[in-house]
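Lab notebook, bench 4. The sequencing result for the construct came back, and we need a structural model before the next group meeting so we can plan mutations. Quick request posted to the team channel:

Model the 3D structure of this chain.
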Amino acid sequence: IGFPILASPVLYGVAGSTRETLRSINRAMGRAQYGRFADSKLTTIARAIDRRDAAKVRTLLAAGPVDFSARDRCFHTLLGHAVMLVLEAYATDSCVECVRALLEAGAPPDRRALATERTSYAPDAYELIAAVSRATTPGAIPLPDVLLAAGPYPTANAMFDGTITFSTLGA
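Done. Here's the predicted structure in token form:
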């Protein structure tokens, strides 16, 4: 009876450590899917966005036509991928520049750039402007202006009452 009492803390420790290691591996596998597109050119652009290399993003975008409606394995468009980097990371000016480069190259500020549909996990996080308006990272502060300057964008009222009005910032 003494052995189980003495061994139980060790067994709980090993089980907890193993569980945390498996969770860590699972999170890493999920993160590896971000920015993986069926088209290798889009994946290359996404990797340049991940490296926060706005100059490389501009060069790759200028190299030829880009399918801005294509989605990665996490259902983000290229613009959605860049916006998620700004929202999730401690964004720098170069992160926002990647978003700006995509918009200048013709990426539409599609309200569903982050996901194709609502989920029970995040019922309105798929709405681009809703996700951006809740940004708390300091680097994300210029993001709404950058998106709205790209053209008309439905206001947040569209999510709540079905009426759609368009707004832009600046001239």
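Helices lie at 2-31, 40-50, 54-62, 78-88, 93-104, 128-133, 143-149, 157-161.
Will bring this to the meeting.
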